[in-house]
Automatic annotation (TrEMBL), chains A, B, C, D:
GO CC terms in record: cytosol
E.C. number(s) listed in UniProt: 4.2.3.5
Stated name of the protein: Chorismate synthase
UniProtKB keywords: Amino-acid biosynthesis, Aromatic amino acid biosynthesis, FAD, Flavoprotein, FMN, Lyase, NADP
Cofactor binding: number and manner: Reduced FMN (FMNH(2)).
Cofactor: FMNH2
Binding site for FMN: 129-131, 242-243, 287, 302-306, 328
Membrane-spanning segments: none
Binding-site residues for NADP(+), renumbered to this chain: 48, 54
Subunit and interaction comment: Homotetramer.
EC class name: lyase
Reaction it catalyzes: 5-O-(1-carboxyvinyl)-3-phosphoshikimate = chorismate + phosphate
Length: 361, 361, 361, 361
């Protein structure tokens, strides 16, 4: 978490602006001998890429990822070598002229003002460095992280709340997520949600959402006291995603209303003689270390700030004005956030796995 | 956030167990020539220390902090020298026998099981390293951080929700916090909350709570893209506090229900010609960089896991048993969490200040 | 210094193999508003690039660097934006077949064996990740570092010893370095050294050398106790360069033979009333912090391991064999190491400058 | 190597000044279940502690180390728990008055001036933070590191050059080191060296020295490309020791005079079918990764700067003066540097071991 780098041992550094020639990442610290090719990356990138449905931005990007280093094929197919893995995606549809009129005005809800305030300069084209386009690289890195984790750890996420429309906890079905264009964690809500989001979209508006995350197969013992807590790392990872405004683990904010008797997860011995928890209010983490239960979290996304309705703002020269987004945008940025949430969880867990292995063997 | 160290440039490393001889921290990277003495630390430590009211644990600790290095008095009073500042607090009331019967059983909701699973050994006495006693050092480090930040930045927190009892946002008054034993951010709720928490306490139960945080005076420009986001650092800092299960910035989870028009904070020019935001749904952060508005966050604490009611659990030898806490405990751990939330915010901001100064000057 | 990343605040991450499609680096933490274009990089890269004379490898690489992110031209020419700067160089002349016969044999003196031992796989083509080709990126990053440092700090290096041929300390003239193909720090030695190195080259042999470094204009106060010492950072930077086997600061190993009276640099007041040192055995560093005197160091390079004479070795399948280098190589790898030494010094100093500014302002 | 912290996974943070109440360190990242007690520390500390012979400072310090955290005795003796290990040594003989007259004058060769220049304040008492007293903590941390490494890795060092008196490479005998008060790596030189150093001591002068280091039992594969090279880490570790001015690995500066044929270490198969090197010019490292051969290095120490002869200097108020050391001092600081060199090597190797285990398993 050092500016543009994430992770301690499984380290991801990203670079690139929305409308520059390309974006890329370097994944360092990856174990060797893991089969990895560009074909592994593409299906995951496709889930996040623009243009996939009417509910996401119509920017045309194939999001084709190339691996430029760190893998080698010595006859049995490409494997990681332990050297840094450079992944690169060219920007193809960078219509800078779309953004010409906002070169000077700060779009409300965007990072335009803060980048200018911090650096005294900003690449305004499409949001530059602050564009959600950067998250494609998180997805790519997440694929590598999943490979590091292996088959046992399964990471899934999905939209469980769209605006004020909620999926009941007992109805959450992560298997449904990639079968509907809303990334909804229930097939049942899709028709109603589609109608609702169509309305939002046609009005040139946007809406927030909540994404739920679940990682199963995480063994007990990953994470570390007291500042390297697994949930602290996860919270940072999620909050680093564009538009995220809240993170909760397990019972989360709901735990604030619980009595101690209701919140503590009782332990018994399972049929195989191994410890089992009867509930999972902890969300799979106690004292910053995984319990062996599913790791569960919920992530709140604000609505896309790019909307049709003109918003009051100022220019960098200190003139009051109004600005609206005429370019392409997502009516609900959380949708494409689903694979990003999964990817960041994968990176956190791969890092935790390596760190655990380092200290405990 | 490397195991037991927090921060990048303003770095805090803590050590010590609940029932060891002492606990301590090392604050490295502190700017020189800042007046600092033990007398500066004590008032803040006293706010967190046990035994202050019937609503917190009755463990008797004076929590007297000694500064063992990094300050020097050359005639004008002690100032920081730029060298690491070691702060130490002796453990005085470590009644290990209170915990003798839980040496083998894993207390539900505590980190007993996960520490054992990770390390194969744990200092069970009073929770050892996972005890909330460690947070005294965060408070001490937070005092140093406040000194680094100076008078302009003001950091305040308070309990705004106790169980299901809420203080309305418009009624939040941080000035009230340290004038009542509940650290409640409103004097009005205190009688009712006291009655309620007395009931919880007498029943040997516990309850969760939400702590609100506000930092004013933070200039626009602190923080960094994209993994070093100010809100990502803040989320990690808060989630690293014992018992915290959720963090939200600005509108937080509420933003998930907002339309883009409602969420985006419009900008105008103030009377002094400087940018002003008409609302603050962003909570003072856009794109991971501070806007100059108040930094606002809310932190959810789970109920204390130590309760009188016996809970089902197992021993490390794999035997099913029940365990209850007969030792001293806090009926609502969030109360003493208030100064800890403030301290962690101070550490995050001091670190952000130094990092900003490094890159931008 | 985390695997493939160098620096704390001015951070350089490199990636790429000798015979992959490209090599690249990401420079993160660079201050904004620094003019920077590809034209700035090229002259320095040209100094290191192959094919420049008969004394360096004849591999044909234009070493044309492209900047893919982190700079923006808002009308007054491209400047850094504070975002990560991605620099990329395509590999053009990657004759993998030259190396076909050494795919299995470990070349003595190279990292072939150790990479295989560590990772169980290696990109053997041209040395893969361990190739000195990576140092082109150090030179590119060094250009950015020089820009951060500004005009006041001047960093120069040159060959002062070639095999057993030495330039006397009082004859060292860094102005001569880039005017002769040997990067010798004296024009006087060039004819004799050329004749000597021609002999080495024609014999298919190689020879070691020592490069001297001097940085002037470094103000007193950069660096930090006690593990972040400026000379410790510099030593790590130099030792991380391919083929380097020794580093000394100031009087270096010579200081081992000095008495305290001879070694300590006396201080007086200069004409301007500022402190001056009468000698500089310290090499510009005391206690890990710069004194304001020139920073001086010497760096020992071993001879190129690629030589024509067959050397005894084994294959990765455990068979004894002999291997010689028929590909292109440098008779003295230290020559092209000169701009690399300068670049690493620039990176160390830029990092130290930002770190100092962070802590002290 | 972040200011006062050393290491990546096996992390040592030290604090404390020469004449403060105590000095201490925190060792974080240590694997659990390693037997460790205060009795383990003392023999190593005793080797470095002052007052052991007439050749080292007569300051009276028992250097008794207490372990305040991170170990727990659950019945089978104290073992590490994976939590941070705090080690503390009280300062007993801090005669501040000895240094009263140098409170304002900068001692030549010391860090007085640079600390003042950097921080604008310095704890002048006995050198404050820059005192070699800090190295006691390195020795303590080194004991923990040795425990992490286990019995297989053996780390030894000794003085091989005292002023211009050298021990021939073939005569180096590390077994002799702790049997003579000069830490000389040969019993044969002791009488002559004692006579020589007595002369230096009686003259109130000092002399430099070279310490050789050897670590056997390091398996092939530790270390990492390209900035995390094992030798780069080792160089930084050594250069961070007080008074060190040079580091060389294997043939070191001598490699600059070698031809490629002479320098490259040929490989053959040993009797057990495993790779063996016929020579070790590389010093056990190729491409930054260990070869499995002994790791060898040489470290140059400058003479103690504290000498009886008055040296020209200035005061912090800008007045020219002279200063001499009337306090206790070491005629050759390298002597007590021997256990420090060993300890730093142990820390580097323990860190490398954990990092290797993390990435490769």
């Amino acid at each position: 978490m050092s500016h543009n780098t994430f992770g301690h041992l499984f380290r991801v550094t990203t670079w690139g602006e929305s409308h520059g020639p390309a974006i890329g990442c370097v994944v360092d610290g990856c174990p060797p001998l893991i089969p990895l090719s560009e074909a592994d990356l593409q299906p995951w990138l496709d889930r996040r890429k623009p243009g996939g449905s009417r509910f996401v931005t119509q920017r045309r990007e194939s999001d084709t990822a190339r691996i430029l280093s760190g893998v080698f094929d010595d006859g049995d197919g490409p494997v990681t070598t332990g050297a840094p893995i450079a992944i690169q995606i060219d920007n193809e549809d960078a219509r800078s002229k779309d953004y010409g009129d906002i070169a000077r005005a700060f779009r409300p809800g965007h990072a335009d003002y803060t980048y200018q305030a911090k650096y005294g300069v900003r690449d305004h084209r499409g949001g530059g460095r602050s564009s959600a386009r950067e998250t494609a690289l998180r997805v790519a890195a997440g694929v590598v992280a999943r490979k590091v984790l292996g088959e046992t750890v399964r990471i899934r996420a999905g939209v469980v709340q769209l605006g004020s429309h909620r999926i009941a906890p007992e109805a959450v079905d992560f298997d449904a997520v990639y079968d509907n264009p809303l990334f909804a964690a229930s097939a049942d809500v899709v028709p109603a949600w589609e109608a609702y989001l169509d309305g939002v979209r046609k009005a040139g508006s946007s809406i927030g959402a909540v994404v739920a995350l679940e990682a199963t197969g995480v063994p007990a013992g990953w994470g570390a006291p007291v500042y390297g807590k697994l949930d602290a790392e996860l919270a940072a990872a999620m909050m680093s995603i564009n538009a995220v405004k809240g993170v909760e683990i397990g019972a989360g904010f709901g735990a604030a209303e619980l009595a101690g008797e209701a919140n503590a997860d009782a332990m018994r011995l399972g049929e195989d003689g191994r410890p089992v928890f009867l509930t999972n209010h902890a969300g799979g983490v106690l004292g910053g270390i995984s319990t062996g239960q599913p790791l569960t979290a919920r992530v709140a996304f604000k609505p896309t700030s790019s909307i049709l309705t003109p918003g009051q703002t100022i220019t960098r020269d200190g003139i009051e004005t109004e600005v609206s987004t005429r370019g392409r945008h997502d009516p609900c940025v959380a949708l494409r956030g689903v694979p990003v949430v999964e990817a960041m969880a994968a990176c956190v867990l791969a890092d935790a796995m390596l760190r655990h292995r380092a200290q405990v063997g």
